[in-house]
Design brief:
This protein is mainly alpha-helical. It folds into two domains: 118 residues, Tetratricopeptide repeat domain (Serine Threonine Protein Phosphatase 5, Tetratricopeptide repeat, Alpha Horseshoe), CATH 1.25.40; 127 residues, Tetratricopeptide repeat domain (Serine Threonine Protein Phosphatase 5, Tetratricopeptide repeat, Alpha Horseshoe), CATH 1.25.40. The protein is built from 13 helices and no strands. Helix 7 runs parallel beside helix 9. The chain starts with a helix and ends with a helix.
Length: 282
Amino acid sequence: MDISGVLAAEDRLFNENRADEVEELLMSAVSVALDEGDGGALLQLLNELIGYYRESSRFEDAYKVAEEIKDVASRILPERSVPYATSLLNIATAYRTGGRLEDAMREYKKVEEIYEEILEPDSLLMASLYNNESLLYQETGDFKSAKELLLKALKIVTANGELYEEAVSRANIAGTCMQLGELEEGYEYAGRAIALFQELGVSDGHYAAALSAIGSYFYIKGQFETGAKVFSEAMEVMESALGKNAYYMRLKENYEECVKAARETAGAKEKEPEKIESEKKE
């Protein structure tokens, strides 16, 4: 089957903000691959499908596809191969995003073992693994380990001249720095990430993550109105790219917290003159 044509159509739908049509496209292509007995195309399509479900926060659907991927991969691929490991990486990331952290760690370690055996240390695939695995450490609260992995990833992608991957790594580092209380460093990483995304003309979930880090910076600094504006922009980017998924809802919570804090601060300032006047009367 024409797998390249399907993938091009998928990219076009995302670029045109028609993500809701991607599932139908991929499921139709999966049926064709099954009818034609094209295992390679089927595996590639299933990997695309699990990514779509993951980004759409449809985790139960993602878990079902994960089992299909395992079945197909074990039948058509050598276990010590890049395609096999990459399929496991997609499964691990789906588990992580859905909250199955122990399952995710198990799969990530399998991928790491295979990659270290067959890849060069500066391979971009190693950087992808580090980026994804770091997010798992973030979920467990080990932000120091997460940052160490992200810095490894950044070194690899920068050396390879991969601007988009550099932007993604910097966005991830920025969020991690905020969690570690390294505000100024995080702000710098986020600013550079945003500049790269804008230079590349990319407006996706990773761009939203970079904006989120900036929003967090202003919130922590007590600049609540500015933080609210940035979180609002991040929400718009996320909704346009992937809909109102779980990450969108998290951004919305942060936006609402900024708005609430801004109102409380404004209210406190309004009451201050009354307090001073009362003290004068006494």
